[in-house]
Design brief:
elongated, about 120 residues, mainly alpha
């Protein structure tokens, strides 16, 4: 864009967006139309709205990267079906988990006191 509308710009950008969306009453629409006839920055911004809206409404999906198929295939070979990737939830608790369960507030308090010294 050549320049952005200034803070003291006579046209609110919300009106410009509503103009693009055809959501203005006739009087507001006439006001924006008159402004656009004199303001290159707003005409350029309005053209940007049209470009962006067209891209959003288009039916074409972005193409995946060409390496995606190879990466997915490599992951499928590395993690075949049935292979666990994490700890077995049915396994017995570790020694650290089994030591005095439910006493973490006390242990946390001891650590806090030691750190405060």
């Amino acid at each position: 864009m050549s320049e952005s509308p200034r803070l003291d710009h006579p046209l609110d950008l919300a009106l410009l967006s509503a103009y693009h969306d055809d959501a203005l009453d006739p009087a507001e629409r006439q006001r924006v139309t008159a402004h656009l006839a004199q303001c290159a920055a707003c005409r350029e911004r309005l053209a940007g709205y049209a470009t962006l809206g067209g891209a959003i409404r288009s039916d074409t999906a972005p193409s995946p990267p060409p390496t995606l198929d190879a990466r997915v295939a490599a992951l499928q070979r590395a993690y075949p079906p049935g292979r666990r990737t994490g700890p077995d939830p049915a396994a017995a608790p570790t020694e650290a988990q089994a030591v005095l369960p439910g006493t973490w507030p006390i242990r946390l308090g001891i650590v806090a006191v030691v750190l405060a010294l």
